[in-house]
Write the structure tokens for this entry.
Amino acid sequence: MSKTRTYKIAVMGGDGTGPEVVREGLKVLNAAQNKFGFKLECTEFDFGGERYKRTGETLPDSAVEELRQFDAIYLGAIGHPDVAPGILEKGILLKARFALDQYINLRPVKLYPGVETPIKDKGPEDIDFVVVRENTQDLYCGMGGVMHYGTPNEVATQTAIYSRFGVDRCLKYAFEYTRKRNKKKTLTLCGKTNVLTHLYGLWERAFHEMGQKDYPDIKRDYAHVDATTMWMVKNPEWFDVIVTGNMFGDIITDLGAMIQGGMGIAAGGNINPDPGGVSMFEPIGGSAPKYTGKNVINPLAAIGAGQMMLETLGETDAAAAIEKAIMYVTGRKLKSLAAGKMGYSTTEVGDMVAQYTADGPPAE
Ligand code: IPM
Ligand code: MN
């Protein structure tokens, strides 16, 4: 008899509505483990705004060491109205990404049935691509400084950096992902080679060298970042997989989230694909503090993050069952994805997705 597959999961509900949506995600993951024969051992951590206010701690080094012992991290949301912007984002989210070397930020942009997109005349058959965002370099490194602070002579610099190593490992992931996805087999590099000639010159050379040598089956395409935003709205069906740097990836994936129906549905994975790497999965919307405790927030993005976590852990059947359940709920149940307008409460949406994950959606 085969041994039960057991995964150790660090659960960080975080701030605002984070814990509520993570609770629904765990409900669905529980339903999946019973059905598909694996086991999640969850340990809760309380990092976030409340703990910071109490102790001054964001994500201490000791916690990072502890997190290394897990198979994955399931995160709700970070962001607290009483804490100045930047402290929790840098202290928790970016710290985890950097310290655990989660060098890929994977963000699917997929319009589910029944979900409204602001793009006229486009439907689920047109909006289905994935952004592979580099997640540990670029402007996010914090290189630079300020002099003459607060004076009329103030000077500020913040430098984007890319190493060949950092670019190559991201490209490798993107090529492999495109091959495995097996759809249009097209990888688009999103850059700015007409202006950022150093940075995206490096990306472009690395992209074509690797593609030519190791991925002749994958079509290579290129778009400047400004044009990418245009095509995402005008012809989203052109895209299969987009690979890009950290800053551009941050910006274009918010646009991506909007065309797939908004923050209620958009999920992402901070992935360290190396052996023994610890990846972290999160709904990409914020902590939505004004909805905290009201049981009205949409948990589907968090549920989708849980689905991505299973996918990355190799539980692909369970992940597919969750996605099918989500699609049934968006297509047949919810009136809207917006908080308070779903026609169901947060917990009811979680109940439905859990049930359809376990039993399959009702026969048509
Ligand atoms: C994201 C967020 C973060 C980022 C912030 C909160 C630091 O916008 O995950 O996209 O810029 O990466
Ligand atoms: Mn962002």
